[in-house]
Design brief:
- By secondary structure, the chain is α+β, with helices and mostly antiparallel strands.
- It has a domain of 64 residues.
- Helices cover 28% and strands 7% of the residues.
- The chain contains 4 helices and 2 strands; from the N terminus they run H-H-E-E-H-H.
- Strands 1-2 form a two-stranded antiparallel sheet.
- Strand 1 and strand 2 form a beta hairpin.
- The longest helix has 14 residues.
- The protein is globular, with a radius of gyration of 14 Å.
Length: 107
Amino acid sequence: MQTIHLHPLAPAKPTMGAVCNGCGVCCAAEPCPVGVLISRKRRGRCVALVWDEGQNRYWCGMLLEPARYLPINWPWLNRRISRWAQRSIAAGLGCDSDSVVATEHDA
């Protein structure tokens, strides 16, 4: 069993197929294909998982601010990379994480 740590105000993980609510479970458990490239690892928390204090949710940093994770900062390229990342992670198409979430109370 893998233990991940999330912000205490993170929303509960939605059911498979439900709209993403920014719970962060998927990206904290393992990086997606985009995250593998950015994090340079196949297991563990993605380095591009970003907590949004104002909205109390997680976002993919590659969608919001790709230049932060890349060695170059060209605005035209950043916009294209952001769109590519959005398609690659199927952003907005629903939860695809089959992770089982247990709370401290379940332990």
